Amino acid sequence: MKLQNLAIIFAIIVIPISLVLQYYIGTQIDTIKLQTTYDEKLTTAVSDAIKAYQINTANNPYALISNSQKRDVEAAIEMFMTSFATGLGVGGYGETQIKPYIPAILFTLYDGYYIYAPTFNYDDESQKFEHILKPYTTYTSRYKKAGTDILVSYTLDNYITVTGIISGTYENRSGYLINQNISLEPETLREKLLIYNPLTGSTSLEEYEYIYQGGEKRYYDPLSTDSSNRKWFLYRNGIKNYVFITEEQQEDINAVTYIEEAKEFTAWVDANLGDITLNDLVLEDGIKQRNENHIYMGENGNNKIFDSQENNFESEDSTFNIHKRDIMRISIKENLSSAITNYSEHSEALGTNVEFRLPTLEEAEWDQITKNICMAVFVQGMPVGIKTYNNYAIINNTRNKNYVDQEGLCFINSSDGNYHRIDCPYLEENNIQGYRQTDFERSAVEITTDEGRENMYYYKHTNLPCYYCIVDRNYDRVELTLERLQALRQTLGRERQLLHY
Ligand SMILES: [Zn+2]
């Protein structure tokens, strides 16, 4: 064969291949680009949802009431859908078009979680198969031994609820587990209020001492102008409403009450549940087998879960805390997995035939889920270019109101006008006093003026964020001295007491 013929044959064979390859690689690149865009949009949408949740809960200071929780979670999910659909904005991917590819959304809270997933809606007469928010699940597990059969409900911190039969008697108790034999002091708390004067229509920022009582703040006004000479007032819509307080308690005793109640509760738990071990956990066989690796048992089976001698309740490595996180993880995993499998079986109802399954989450991601309030969104089988898009995003709510830990607290002193984290080297040890971080953020108050209702904004504490520990967050943490430790415990104790008043 002539060389020219070979060349022609070569060209006939190679050119189409290269053209196809070129097209294929081009599409691949487009697909990868599109996947990256989807990743970004997914993360942004979940962050938007968490922000919406923060805004909705901001003016709802100590909301552990399930009705408002449910409403706030529903609003956050709604925000996610809108943000994700808008973000993708491709080929008319409206909310109804993206929903079939979302097998589940998980929203964890202080003492349990919600799962939003497609399911038969029995509340609806048509029993439609659609995305609904399933009933709230608490982090509860059962323990059984001679004479004792109890349910223990866990939370993100050391607060537990115990119900059931203990040595033949029915009990129902809740409280914090603590180890330290410390004492806390009554304290003088202060904050600024935006006071509205209806006569002049003007406002002024005024500072008052307050005590927290019965779920609300009572402010002390030594220069009271009240006709009945009442010195305490409630703050409502920018106005001081003077009230009588029978026993004039001048200082806030929430921290003191917290420690007294926690000590008493811990002593009761020690006496009644001290001998309960990991082996006493009651779990269905199937669940037990599926989660063998995560049930902290085996040779540790005799470890005592609630004994205060054997457990440092503040330490993440204590039997109590490891076991608690296992219980949370098993509960979430089992329920998510069953919701997703159930959707797989009925996915044609929403027009897909994707095989949905719970992806394997990494240890760090489980930690994120079981140590925080967070939202996790799973997306599967969504068409992207020549492939399908599968991913998930987990975002923590770092500014929450319904749970308090060291991270959520900030501290001021008499030396500078900044607020700090407790372990910041720039926090001088001069009358350290702590508040929640959210107390340093802008507050809103609805005021009724001549022109109608108006939202006005003010700061309860006019301190500025410390550049090093609050803004930059990159600082050399100092060892907690006794004074710092005391301020931290005092604030944590007070704020925890307020959550469960
Ligand atoms: Zn600082």
What does this structure look like?
With 501 residues, the chain is of the alpha+beta class. The protein has helices at residues 3-58, 66-88, 95-98, 254-273, 285-290, 319-346, 363-371, 467-472, 482-499, and strands at 104-108, 112-120, 129-133, 137-145, 148-154, 159-166, 169-176, 189-197, 202-213, 216-220, 232-236, 239-243, 281-282, 374-384, 387-396, 409-412, 418-419, 433-436, 443-449, 452-458, 464-465. The mean pLDDT is 88. A hairpin with a 2-residue loop joins strand 11 (232-236) and strand 12 (239-243). Helix 4 (254-273) crosses helix 9. The chain has 9 helices and 21 strands. It is 34% helix and 27% strand. Among the domains are: 3-136 and 321-395, no CATH class; 404-501, no CATH class. The strands form 5 sheets. Strands 1, 2, 3, 4, 5, 6, 7, 13, 14 and 15 form a 10-stranded antiparallel β-sheet that branches. A 5-stranded antiparallel β-sheet has the order 8-9-10-11-12, with no helix packed on it. Zinc ion is lined by residues 420, 424, 426-427, 466, 468-469.
Oligomerization state:
single chain
Class computed from helices, strands and strand pairing: alpha+beta
Largest sheet: 10 strands, antiparallel
Radius of gyration: 28 Å
Give the mean pLDDT. Answer: 88
Poorly predicted spans: none
Number of helices: 9
Bound ligands, named by name, code or SMILES: zinc ion
Q: SSE string, helix = H, strand = E?
A: HHHEEEEEEEEEEEEHEHHHEEEEEEEEHH
Number of beta-strand segments = 21
Shape: globular
Share of residues in helices? 25-40%
Distance between the termini: 96 Å
How large is the share of residues in beta strands?
25-35%
